Task: inverse folding
Protein backbone atom coordinates (compact mmCIF):
# COMPACT_ATOMS: atom_id res chain seq x y z
CA UNK A 1 0.00 0.00 0.00
CA UNK A 2 1.35 3.42 -0.92
CA UNK A 3 2.05 5.99 1.78
CA UNK A 4 -0.29 8.87 2.50
CA UNK A 5 -0.31 11.62 -0.10
CA UNK A 6 0.64 14.63 2.03
CA UNK A 7 0.05 17.15 -0.74
CA UNK A 8 -2.45 16.61 -3.56
CA UNK A 9 -1.96 17.71 -7.17
CA UNK A 10 -4.29 20.64 -6.50
CA UNK A 11 -2.05 21.78 -3.64
CA UNK A 12 -4.27 20.63 -0.77
CA UNK A 13 -3.08 18.80 2.33
CA UNK A 14 -4.60 15.83 4.17
CA UNK A 15 -6.97 18.00 6.20
CA UNK A 16 -7.95 20.20 3.25
CA UNK A 17 -5.66 23.13 4.03
CA UNK A 18 -3.50 25.00 1.55
CA UNK A 19 0.28 24.75 1.99
CA UNK A 20 0.68 27.89 4.11
CA UNK A 21 -2.75 27.81 5.76
CA UNK A 22 -2.86 27.50 9.54
CA UNK A 23 -5.16 25.34 11.60
CA UNK A 24 -8.00 27.03 13.47
CA UNK A 25 -6.79 28.53 16.74
CA UNK A 26 -9.05 29.02 19.76
CA UNK A 27 -7.76 30.23 23.10
CA UNK A 28 -8.94 31.32 26.54
CA UNK A 29 -7.08 33.10 29.33
CA UNK A 30 -7.58 32.95 33.12
CA UNK A 31 -8.92 29.41 33.15
CA UNK A 32 -7.66 28.72 36.71
CA UNK A 33 -8.42 31.03 39.61
CA UNK A 34 -5.63 29.79 41.89
CA UNK A 35 -2.72 30.22 39.47
CA UNK A 36 -1.02 33.56 38.80
CA UNK A 37 -1.66 33.11 35.10
CA UNK A 38 -3.23 30.41 32.96
CA UNK A 39 -4.36 29.76 29.41
CA UNK A 40 -5.95 27.05 27.29
CA UNK A 41 -5.21 26.84 23.58
CA UNK A 42 -6.53 24.67 20.77
CA UNK A 43 -4.51 24.59 17.57
CA UNK A 44 -6.51 22.32 15.32
CA UNK A 45 -6.78 19.07 17.25
CA UNK A 46 -3.76 19.85 19.44
CA UNK A 47 -4.91 21.09 22.83
CA UNK A 48 -2.57 22.62 25.40
CA UNK A 49 -3.02 23.97 28.90
CA UNK A 50 -0.44 26.34 30.42
CA UNK A 51 -0.16 27.57 34.00
CA UNK A 52 2.28 30.17 35.36
CA UNK A 53 3.28 30.78 38.98
CA UNK A 54 5.59 33.56 40.02
CA UNK A 55 7.77 35.44 40.37
CA UNK A 56 8.13 33.77 43.78
CA UNK A 57 10.81 32.67 46.21
CA UNK A 58 13.14 29.96 44.99
CA UNK A 59 11.92 26.57 46.15
CA UNK A 60 14.43 24.29 47.85
CA UNK A 61 18.09 25.26 47.83
CA UNK A 62 18.79 29.02 47.85
CA UNK A 63 22.12 28.34 46.12
CA UNK A 64 20.26 27.93 42.81
CA UNK A 65 19.17 31.58 42.88
CA UNK A 66 20.79 34.10 40.55
CA UNK A 67 21.64 37.52 41.99
CA UNK A 68 20.92 39.42 38.78
CA UNK A 69 17.85 37.74 37.27
CA UNK A 70 15.03 35.29 37.80
CA UNK A 71 15.20 31.59 37.05
CA UNK A 72 12.61 30.27 34.61
CA UNK A 73 11.54 26.75 35.44
CA UNK A 74 9.54 24.91 32.76
CA UNK A 75 7.83 21.56 32.96
CA UNK A 76 6.28 19.95 29.91
CA UNK A 77 4.03 16.94 30.19
CA UNK A 78 1.54 15.04 28.08
CA UNK A 79 -1.69 13.64 29.44
CA UNK A 80 -1.80 9.84 29.43
CA UNK A 81 -4.83 10.06 27.12
CA UNK A 82 -3.31 12.63 24.74
CA UNK A 83 -2.18 10.16 22.07
CA UNK A 84 -3.76 7.20 20.30
CA UNK A 85 -1.76 4.81 22.46
CA UNK A 86 -1.85 5.46 26.21
CA UNK A 87 1.35 7.08 27.48
CA UNK A 88 3.14 5.25 30.26
CA UNK A 89 5.13 8.24 31.55
CA UNK A 90 3.31 11.58 31.24
CA UNK A 91 6.51 13.48 32.07
CA UNK A 92 10.10 12.84 33.09
CA UNK A 93 11.08 10.89 29.99
CA UNK A 94 13.81 12.09 27.65
CA UNK A 95 11.47 13.72 25.15
CA UNK A 96 9.60 15.68 27.84
CA UNK A 97 12.87 16.82 29.42
CA UNK A 98 14.12 18.02 26.04
CA UNK A 99 10.87 19.90 25.41
CA UNK A 100 11.06 21.48 28.88
CA UNK A 101 14.57 22.69 28.10
CA UNK A 102 13.45 24.14 24.75
CA UNK A 103 10.60 26.00 26.47
CA UNK A 104 13.00 27.35 29.10
CA UNK A 105 15.39 28.64 26.42
CA UNK A 106 12.51 30.17 24.46
CA UNK A 107 11.05 32.14 27.36
CA UNK A 108 14.41 33.28 28.71
CA UNK A 109 14.67 35.24 25.45
CA UNK A 110 11.33 36.99 25.99
CA UNK A 111 10.75 37.47 29.72
CA UNK A 112 12.42 40.45 31.44
CA UNK A 113 14.05 38.25 34.08
CA UNK A 114 16.38 41.03 35.24
CA UNK A 115 13.43 42.74 36.95
CA UNK A 116 13.13 39.87 39.46
CA UNK A 117 16.54 38.86 40.83
CA UNK A 118 16.72 35.90 43.26
CA UNK A 119 13.27 34.76 42.10
CA UNK A 120 11.71 31.94 40.16
CA UNK A 121 9.00 31.82 37.51
CA UNK A 122 7.34 28.44 36.98
CA UNK A 123 5.72 27.53 33.67
CA UNK A 124 3.81 24.25 33.55
CA UNK A 125 2.45 23.09 30.20
CA UNK A 126 0.31 20.03 29.60
CA UNK A 127 -0.71 18.62 26.24
CA UNK A 128 -4.26 17.31 26.57
CA UNK A 129 -4.54 16.12 22.98
CA UNK A 130 -1.63 15.70 20.59
CA UNK A 131 -2.04 16.11 16.85
CA UNK A 132 1.28 17.60 15.79
CA UNK A 133 2.82 20.98 16.52
CA UNK A 134 3.09 20.23 20.25
CA UNK A 135 6.00 22.62 20.77
CA UNK A 136 4.27 25.51 19.02
CA UNK A 137 1.00 24.93 20.91
CA UNK A 138 2.93 24.90 24.20
CA UNK A 139 4.78 28.13 23.42
CA UNK A 140 1.62 29.93 22.31
CA UNK A 141 -0.34 28.75 25.37
CA UNK A 142 2.52 29.65 27.74
CA UNK A 143 2.78 33.12 26.18
CA UNK A 144 -0.89 33.75 26.92
CA UNK A 145 -0.43 32.45 30.47
CA UNK A 146 2.55 34.78 31.03
CA UNK A 147 0.54 37.73 29.71
CA UNK A 148 -2.29 36.74 32.05
CA UNK A 149 0.13 36.59 35.00
CA UNK A 150 1.28 40.15 34.22
CA UNK A 151 4.92 39.11 33.88
CA UNK A 152 6.86 41.75 31.89
CA UNK A 153 7.98 40.55 28.47
CA UNK A 154 9.98 42.12 25.67
CA UNK A 155 7.48 40.81 23.16
CA UNK A 156 5.11 37.94 22.52
CA UNK A 157 6.65 34.61 21.67
CA UNK A 158 4.83 32.91 18.81
CA UNK A 159 5.86 29.50 17.56
CA UNK A 160 5.00 27.44 14.53
CA UNK A 161 6.16 24.25 12.88
CA UNK A 162 6.95 23.93 9.19
CA UNK A 163 7.83 21.05 6.89
CA UNK A 164 8.95 20.39 3.35
CA UNK A 165 7.03 18.14 0.95
CA UNK A 166 7.71 17.89 -2.79
CA UNK A 167 9.57 21.22 -2.91
CA UNK A 168 6.64 22.92 -1.15
CA UNK A 169 6.99 24.39 2.35
CA UNK A 170 4.06 23.48 4.63
CA UNK A 171 3.19 25.58 7.69
CA UNK A 172 1.69 24.29 10.95
CA UNK A 173 2.12 20.54 10.55
CA UNK A 174 -0.39 18.03 11.83
CA UNK A 175 0.59 14.63 13.29
CA UNK A 176 0.44 12.77 9.97
CA UNK A 177 2.70 15.33 8.30
CA UNK A 178 5.16 15.34 11.21
CA UNK A 179 5.42 11.57 11.32
CA UNK A 180 5.71 11.30 7.53
CA UNK A 181 9.48 11.16 7.82
CA UNK A 182 10.18 14.49 6.13
CA UNK A 183 11.87 17.57 7.50
CA UNK A 184 10.15 19.23 10.46
CA UNK A 185 11.25 22.66 11.65
CA UNK A 186 10.04 24.41 14.81
CA UNK A 187 10.53 28.15 15.07
CA UNK A 188 9.79 30.51 17.96
CA UNK A 189 9.72 34.17 16.99
CA UNK A 190 9.43 37.54 18.72
CA UNK A 191 7.17 38.96 16.01
CA UNK A 192 7.52 42.71 16.54
CA UNK A 193 11.31 42.71 16.57
CA UNK A 194 11.67 39.75 14.21
CA UNK A 195 14.18 38.06 16.52
CA UNK A 196 14.26 34.27 16.63
CA UNK A 197 13.99 32.82 20.14
CA UNK A 198 14.47 29.18 19.14
CA UNK A 199 15.01 27.24 15.94
CA UNK A 200 15.03 23.48 15.87
CA UNK A 201 15.01 21.06 12.96
CA UNK A 202 14.64 17.30 12.68
CA UNK A 203 15.99 15.37 9.68
CA UNK A 204 18.17 16.71 6.90
CA UNK A 205 17.36 19.49 4.49
CA UNK A 206 19.27 20.96 1.58
CA UNK A 207 20.73 24.36 2.35
CA UNK A 208 18.95 25.93 -0.63
CA UNK A 209 15.55 25.12 0.88
CA UNK A 210 16.25 26.42 4.38
CA UNK A 211 15.41 30.05 3.63
CA UNK A 212 12.04 29.26 2.06
CA UNK A 213 11.14 26.94 4.93
CA UNK A 214 12.11 29.53 7.54
CA UNK A 215 10.20 32.21 5.64
CA UNK A 216 7.07 30.04 5.71
CA UNK A 217 7.50 29.43 9.45
CA UNK A 218 8.08 33.13 10.20
CA UNK A 219 5.02 34.18 8.19
CA UNK A 220 2.96 31.61 10.10
CA UNK A 221 4.33 32.92 13.43
CA UNK A 222 3.26 36.45 12.50
CA UNK A 223 -0.22 35.14 11.68
CA UNK A 224 -0.31 33.44 15.08
CA UNK A 225 0.71 36.69 16.75
CA UNK A 226 -2.37 38.39 15.26
CA UNK A 227 -4.58 35.64 16.67
CA UNK A 228 -2.97 35.89 20.12
CA UNK A 229 -3.30 39.68 19.94
CA UNK A 230 -7.04 39.43 19.41
CA UNK A 231 -7.40 36.86 22.23
CA UNK A 232 -5.54 39.11 24.70
CA UNK A 233 -7.42 42.23 23.60
CA UNK A 234 -10.77 40.51 23.97
CA UNK A 235 -9.84 39.21 27.43
CA UNK A 236 -8.57 42.59 28.63
CA UNK A 237 -11.63 44.40 27.32
CA UNK A 238 -13.88 41.95 29.17
CA UNK A 239 -11.90 42.43 32.38
CA UNK A 240 -11.76 46.23 32.11
CA UNK A 241 -15.52 46.35 31.42
CA UNK A 242 -16.18 44.34 34.57
CA UNK A 243 -13.87 46.35 36.80
CA UNK A 244 -15.04 49.76 35.60
CA UNK A 245 -16.95 51.23 38.56
CA UNK B 1 9.28 65.93 24.67
CA UNK B 2 7.59 67.02 21.47
CA UNK B 3 3.99 68.20 22.00
CA UNK B 4 2.75 66.22 18.96
CA UNK B 5 4.18 63.05 20.51
CA UNK B 6 2.45 63.94 23.79
CA UNK B 7 -0.84 64.42 21.91
CA UNK B 8 -0.49 61.07 20.12
CA UNK B 9 0.15 59.41 23.48
CA UNK B 10 -2.90 61.05 25.05
CA UNK B 11 -5.03 59.69 22.22
CA UNK B 12 -4.08 56.16 23.28
CA UNK B 13 -5.13 56.60 26.91
CA UNK B 14 -7.68 53.91 27.77
CA UNK B 15 -6.59 51.70 24.87
CA UNK B 16 -5.46 48.12 25.33
CA UNK B 17 -1.68 47.87 24.86
CA UNK B 18 0.28 44.65 24.47
CA UNK B 19 3.87 43.54 25.20
CA UNK B 20 6.29 44.75 22.54
CA UNK B 21 4.06 47.65 21.41
CA UNK B 22 6.03 50.78 20.60
CA UNK B 23 4.43 53.76 22.36
CA UNK B 24 6.78 56.29 20.83
CA UNK B 25 10.35 57.13 19.91
CA UNK B 26 11.85 60.36 21.12
CA UNK B 27 14.81 62.43 20.00
CA UNK B 28 17.41 63.60 22.55
CA UNK B 29 17.01 67.23 23.75
CA UNK B 30 18.79 69.74 21.57
CA UNK B 31 21.50 72.08 22.85
CA UNK B 32 19.25 75.14 22.55
CA UNK B 33 16.43 73.68 24.70
CA UNK B 34 15.78 75.86 27.72
CA UNK B 35 14.52 73.28 30.22
CA UNK B 36 14.58 69.65 29.06
CA UNK B 37 13.40 68.47 32.51
CA UNK B 38 10.08 70.26 32.10
CA UNK B 39 9.04 67.80 29.38
CA UNK B 40 10.32 64.73 31.18
CA UNK B 41 8.10 61.67 30.85
CA UNK B 42 7.57 59.33 33.79
CA UNK B 43 7.14 55.65 32.91
CA UNK B 44 5.17 53.70 35.48
CA UNK B 45 4.62 49.93 35.74
CA UNK B 46 4.25 48.11 32.43
CA UNK B 47 6.37 50.54 30.41
CA UNK B 48 10.11 50.49 29.83
CA UNK B 49 12.62 52.56 27.98
CA UNK B 50 14.99 50.84 25.58
CA UNK B 51 17.30 53.30 23.88
CA UNK B 52 15.23 56.09 22.37
CA UNK B 53 11.98 54.11 22.51
CA UNK B 54 9.27 53.60 25.09
CA UNK B 55 7.85 50.09 24.80
CA UNK B 56 5.09 48.21 26.59
CA UNK B 57 6.12 45.12 28.57
CA UNK B 58 2.75 44.15 30.10
CA UNK B 59 -0.67 43.70 28.58
CA UNK B 60 -3.29 46.06 29.95
CA UNK B 61 -4.97 49.43 29.62
CA UNK B 62 -2.78 52.51 29.18
CA UNK B 63 -3.42 55.11 31.91
CA UNK B 64 -2.26 58.69 32.38
CA UNK B 65 -1.91 61.10 35.28
CA UNK B 66 -1.30 64.81 34.83
CA UNK B 67 1.09 66.18 33.80
CA UNK B 68 3.25 63.45 32.26
CA UNK B 69 2.96 60.10 34.05
CA UNK B 70 1.97 56.99 32.09
CA UNK B 71 1.50 53.39 33.19
CA UNK B 72 -0.25 50.17 32.19
CA UNK B 73 -3.11 49.01 34.38
CA UNK B 74 -3.10 45.20 34.36
CA UNK B 75 -4.85 42.47 36.32
CA UNK B 76 -1.98 40.90 38.22
CA UNK B 77 -2.18 38.37 41.05
CA UNK B 78 1.45 38.22 42.18
CA UNK B 79 2.66 41.13 44.29
CA UNK B 80 5.93 42.95 43.69
CA UNK B 81 6.99 45.04 46.74
CA UNK B 82 7.07 48.82 46.32
CA UNK B 83 8.37 51.42 48.77
CA UNK B 84 5.72 53.03 50.97
CA UNK B 85 2.99 50.48 50.26
CA UNK B 86 1.04 49.04 53.19
CA UNK B 87 0.80 45.25 53.22
CA UNK B 88 -0.45 42.37 55.34
CA UNK B 89 2.32 39.93 56.21
CA UNK B 90 2.57 36.64 58.06
CA UNK B 91 5.48 36.21 60.49
CA UNK B 92 7.29 33.04 59.44
CA UNK B 93 10.46 33.07 61.54
CA UNK B 94 12.47 34.99 64.11
CA UNK B 95 16.17 35.23 63.41
CA UNK B 96 18.14 37.34 65.87
CA UNK B 97 16.74 40.85 66.08
CA UNK B 98 14.55 40.61 62.99
CA UNK B 99 11.37 38.80 62.09
CA UNK B 100 10.97 37.22 58.66
CA UNK B 101 7.61 38.14 57.16
CA UNK B 102 5.92 36.53 54.17
CA UNK B 103 4.25 39.27 52.10
CA UNK B 104 3.55 37.14 49.02
CA UNK B 105 6.43 38.63 47.04
CA UNK B 106 9.46 37.04 45.46
CA UNK B 107 11.28 36.93 48.81
CA UNK B 108 10.48 37.36 52.48
CA UNK B 109 10.66 40.80 54.07
CA UNK B 110 12.53 41.58 57.28
CA UNK B 111 10.87 43.38 60.19
CA UNK B 112 13.05 44.72 63.01
CA UNK B 113 11.83 44.28 66.58
CA UNK B 114 12.46 48.03 67.06
CA UNK B 115 10.07 48.91 64.21
CA UNK B 116 7.02 48.90 66.52
CA UNK B 117 5.52 51.76 68.52
CA UNK B 118 7.14 52.04 71.94
CA UNK B 119 9.59 49.19 71.28
CA UNK B 120 13.03 49.37 72.91
CA UNK B 121 15.81 46.87 73.53
CA UNK B 122 14.26 46.16 76.92
CA UNK B 123 10.60 46.42 75.90
CA UNK B 124 10.33 43.97 73.02
CA UNK B 125 7.06 43.60 71.10
CA UNK B 126 5.05 40.41 71.58
CA UNK B 127 5.24 38.91 68.10
CA UNK B 128 4.90 35.17 67.53
CA UNK B 129 5.45 33.05 64.43
CA UNK B 130 2.14 32.89 62.55
CA UNK B 131 0.95 36.35 63.63
CA UNK B 132 -0.48 38.76 61.07
CA UNK B 133 1.21 42.15 60.83
CA UNK B 134 0.13 45.25 58.97
CA UNK B 135 3.10 47.37 57.99
CA UNK B 136 4.66 49.40 55.23
CA UNK B 137 7.83 49.03 53.21
CA UNK B 138 10.75 51.34 53.89
CA UNK B 139 13.03 49.49 51.49
CA UNK B 140 11.65 47.75 48.43
CA UNK B 141 14.38 47.42 45.86
CA UNK B 142 14.79 44.54 43.43
CA UNK B 143 18.44 44.22 44.46
CA UNK B 144 17.87 44.29 48.23
CA UNK B 145 15.81 42.40 50.77
CA UNK B 146 12.53 44.26 51.46
CA UNK B 147 12.20 45.90 54.89
CA UNK B 148 8.93 46.43 56.74
CA UNK B 149 8.12 48.78 59.60
CA UNK B 150 5.00 49.07 61.75
CA UNK B 151 5.44 52.76 62.58
CA UNK B 152 5.03 55.95 60.57
CA UNK B 153 7.60 58.74 60.23
CA UNK B 154 6.57 60.14 63.64
CA UNK B 155 7.14 56.82 65.40
CA UNK B 156 3.40 56.19 65.86
CA UNK B 157 1.68 52.90 65.04
CA UNK B 158 -1.08 54.68 63.09
CA UNK B 159 -3.09 51.46 62.70
CA UNK B 160 -0.08 49.29 61.95
CA UNK B 161 1.28 46.40 63.97
CA UNK B 162 0.16 42.92 64.97
CA UNK B 163 -3.55 42.26 64.50
CA UNK B 164 -6.13 39.57 63.83
CA UNK B 165 -6.99 37.44 66.82
CA UNK B 166 -10.13 36.30 65.03
CA UNK B 167 -11.37 37.08 61.55
CA UNK B 168 -10.51 35.60 58.19
CA UNK B 169 -7.56 36.24 55.89
CA UNK B 170 -7.95 35.58 52.16
CA UNK B 171 -6.33 36.61 48.91
CA UNK B 172 -7.80 38.60 46.02
CA UNK B 173 -6.35 40.08 42.82
CA UNK B 174 -4.34 43.29 42.98
CA UNK B 175 -6.92 44.98 40.76
CA UNK B 176 -9.67 44.36 43.32
CA UNK B 177 -7.41 45.66 46.10
CA UNK B 178 -6.95 48.93 44.22
CA UNK B 179 -10.72 49.21 43.86
CA UNK B 180 -11.20 48.58 47.59
CA UNK B 181 -8.61 51.21 48.52
CA UNK B 182 -9.96 53.86 46.14
CA UNK B 183 -10.94 57.06 48.04
CA UNK B 184 -14.70 56.78 47.34
CA UNK B 185 -15.08 53.04 46.90
CA UNK B 186 -18.67 52.00 46.12
CA UNK B 187 -17.73 48.43 46.88
CA UNK B 188 -16.67 49.09 50.48
CA UNK B 189 -19.62 51.37 51.23
CA UNK B 190 -22.07 48.76 49.86
CA UNK B 191 -20.49 46.04 52.02
CA UNK B 192 -20.54 48.20 55.15
CA UNK B 193 -24.25 48.93 54.68
CA UNK B 194 -25.00 45.21 54.73
CA UNK B 195 -22.63 43.95 57.42
CA UNK B 196 -20.76 46.29 59.77
CA UNK B 197 -17.23 44.92 59.89
CA UNK B 198 -13.53 45.51 60.43
CA UNK B 199 -11.50 45.20 57.26
CA UNK B 200 -7.75 45.38 56.68
CA UNK B 201 -6.66 45.58 53.05
CA UNK B 202 -3.04 45.11 52.05
CA UNK B 203 -1.66 46.24 48.71
CA UNK B 204 -0.24 42.73 48.33
CA UNK B 205 -3.70 41.30 47.64
CA UNK B 206 -4.42 40.06 51.15
CA UNK B 207 -7.64 41.07 52.86
CA UNK B 208 -8.56 40.43 56.50
CA UNK B 209 -12.21 40.65 57.48
CA UNK B 210 -13.98 40.38 60.82
CA UNK B 211 -17.73 40.83 61.21
CA UNK B 212 -20.05 40.35 64.20
CA UNK B 213 -20.48 36.64 63.60
CA UNK B 214 -18.47 33.95 61.86
CA UNK B 215 -21.33 33.51 59.40
CA UNK B 216 -21.24 37.19 58.43
CA UNK B 217 -17.45 37.04 58.08
CA UNK B 218 -17.69 34.12 55.66
CA UNK B 219 -20.46 35.82 53.67
CA UNK B 220 -18.33 38.96 53.37
CA UNK B 221 -15.28 37.05 52.17
CA UNK B 222 -17.35 35.15 49.60
CA UNK B 223 -18.94 38.39 48.38
CA UNK B 224 -15.56 40.06 47.97
CA UNK B 225 -14.15 37.11 46.04
CA UNK B 226 -17.26 37.05 43.84
CA UNK B 227 -16.96 40.79 43.11
CA UNK B 228 -13.66 40.22 41.33
CA UNK B 229 -15.33 39.26 38.05
CA UNK B 230 -18.59 41.19 38.31
CA UNK B 231 -19.82 44.37 36.73
CA UNK B 232 -21.35 47.09 38.92
CA UNK B 233 -24.90 46.10 37.92
CA UNK B 234 -24.29 42.42 38.69
CA UNK B 235 -22.77 43.37 42.04
CA UNK B 236 -25.77 45.50 43.03
CA UNK B 237 -28.11 42.64 42.11
CA UNK B 238 -26.12 40.18 44.21
CA UNK B 239 -25.92 42.52 47.21
CA UNK B 240 -29.67 43.16 47.02
CA UNK B 241 -30.35 39.42 47.07
CA UNK B 242 -28.05 38.95 50.07
CA UNK B 243 -29.62 41.88 51.93
CA UNK B 244 -33.11 40.45 51.29
CA UNK B 245 -31.99 37.08 52.65
CA UNK B 246 -32.33 35.41 49.25
CA UNK B 247 -28.95 33.70 49.57
Result:
Amino acid sequence: MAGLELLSDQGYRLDGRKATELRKVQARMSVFAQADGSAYLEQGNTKALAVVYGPHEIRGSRSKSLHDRAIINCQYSMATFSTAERKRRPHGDRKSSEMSLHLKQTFEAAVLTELYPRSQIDIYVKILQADGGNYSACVNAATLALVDAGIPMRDYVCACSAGFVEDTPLADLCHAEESGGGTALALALLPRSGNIALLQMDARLHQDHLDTLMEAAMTACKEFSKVLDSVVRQHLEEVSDLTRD
Amino acid sequence: MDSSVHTSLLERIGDVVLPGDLLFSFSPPEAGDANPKADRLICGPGLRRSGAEIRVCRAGVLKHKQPNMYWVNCQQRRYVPAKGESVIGIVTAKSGDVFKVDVGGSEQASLSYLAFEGATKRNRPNVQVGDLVFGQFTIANKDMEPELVCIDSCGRANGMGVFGGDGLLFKVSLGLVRRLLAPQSDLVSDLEKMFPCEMVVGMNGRVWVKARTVQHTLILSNLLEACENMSTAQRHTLFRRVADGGI
Q: What stands out?
A: Chain A touches chain B at residues 35-37, 54-57, 70, 112, 115-120, 147, 149-156, 190-193, 229, 232-233, 236-237, 239-245 (CB under 8 Å). The first strand of chain A starts at residue 25 and ends at 29.
